[in-house]
Amino acid sequence: MKKLTTSLILLLIFLTTSAHVGSPGVTFEGTAGPYKAIINITPPDVIPGTATVTVYLEDAPKGLQVSARPIYWTVGKDGTPSADIATPSATEQGRYDVKVWFMSIGASSIEVIVDGPKGKGVVLVPVMALSTAKRSMPAGLGWGLLAMAAFLVILMVTIIGSSVGDSQLNPGDEMTQRLRRRRVIGSVVSLVLLVLILWGGKNWWDSEAEDYKSYLFKPMQATTTVDAGNGTLTFSIDTAQLKYLGRGRRMGTTRKMNYIVPDHGKLMHLFLVRAGDLDVFAHLHPRRADSVTFISKVPKLPAGKYFVYADITRLSGFTETIVDTLDVKENLFRNAALEAKTETLADPDDTYYTNNPMGSRALTRPGAAMCGLPGVAAQLNDGSSAIWLQDPKKPIQANELTTLNFEIKDPEGKPAVLEPYMGMMAHAVILKDDGSVYIHLHPAGSYSMASQKALLDRIAFNKPLDEYLPKPSVFADSIDHFVAKINDMPAAERDKLLMTNMSDMKSDGKAHHQVSFPYTFPQPGKYRIWIQAKRNGNIINSAFDAEIK
């Protein structure tokens, strides 16, 4: 019964998710021309709807004007409306707020323009414009409108009946039987016509509501299986559901699986976390076997139920997290002799990490590491340590933009020299204890760099969509060759390529030992945060627990 209840809870959680589970907001940290900026965007959950855009500028000079506008992948800049001017905050220096309308669903972005004494800066932040909710009319408003409609119908029937009956009388004349009959007939006919009009209006309303339902975002479904005999994990996307999703007029092209593009050099970032304890963590990069099947070498996972999160990005810039659960039976790997025949499936950037169970400070597995806390260091697998530079006396509040700052020190306690890991100084994964909130973060924010590049390429092309889209099968083959070429590169050469245009990579030539991640926690509760970086050519992992108020 407990297992069934857990499965149902997970299903209900996953059925309501989209890209970045339970965390719809988008954060960006970088530059807009000469201005350092942090941008926080809360997209609407109903389209058409307004996104809330908040821009924080460092050392903002006087005379600045900040504006924002939506840009849609389907039409590029030619279909872009004029920008809306942001309002400076009266209480917070350097903060600007603006609401931006999204009128169409799909891969979109918000272009933020900063114009001031230092010149003009422009930055594009990807945003997935999705309808994920339905709005119900408040009961009080509904009854009020019904009463007004009834009053108007009675008034119209009375007016029309009087116009064909009483209005025919001269002053002082008495009502005749003929005029009474005309008044009754006029009232009945007008009532029938008004009822037909109202019925037609209701049918139109219901039709629009059904049409809107067809545009509601429906998360893809997948099945995750493990073959312990050869040590592989297979992630298979539901093809029947793909056909159903493809019937949507606006989302068919946007979500084609053949149009997947690499993000940080990988077609898919797949995360496994043991549910409940959150004490087992794996970051894998499956390779594509066909358009809906992805295969990866898998570590020897201990028994339990696992959350599965798979991040993908498409040519349209549309990012999506596909979720699943995986049951690993007791002794699954112990009873299977692992063979080396699938060694070619191993990705050099895959990682596996274990730590203490959530809510416990006891280590229950050999080789497990203790999670850090705000202000408390976590020991890393190479002898170095990571410290979360967060005052434990100042709890983080939900729905408020915060910056998560971490410092890495070498075994001697000196600042560590970090190296790029998949083109970034660090990666972070944040997960709520019940799995309802998941996000894959970078120092530049929560947006996808591949999505940003896809949208910028589309804008630069500036021609009709039919001329822009390549043949799906040809495109998929070329991407597979490109990804294979990247994986075959030496690590230094690969990271140099992936570092291109990465805004978190410093160019001052100094060694950097601190990393930061801008993020807005969407809900209060208990979270675990995994930090991944690279030092001396090796991937280093750490984890931290946090309680968000």
TrEMBL record:
Keywords: Membrane, Signal, Transmembrane, Transmembrane helix
Signal peptide extent: 1-21
GO MF term (any one): structural constituent of ribosome
Ranges annotated as spanning the membrane: 141-164, 184-205
Highest taxon, organism lineage: Bacteria
Gene Ontology CC: ribosome
GO BP terms: translation
Keyword Transmembrane attached: yes
Keyword set includes Transmembrane helix: yes
Identification of the protein by name: Uncharacterized protein
Lineage: Bacteria, Pseudomonadati, Bacteroidota, Sphingobacteriia, Sphingobacteriales
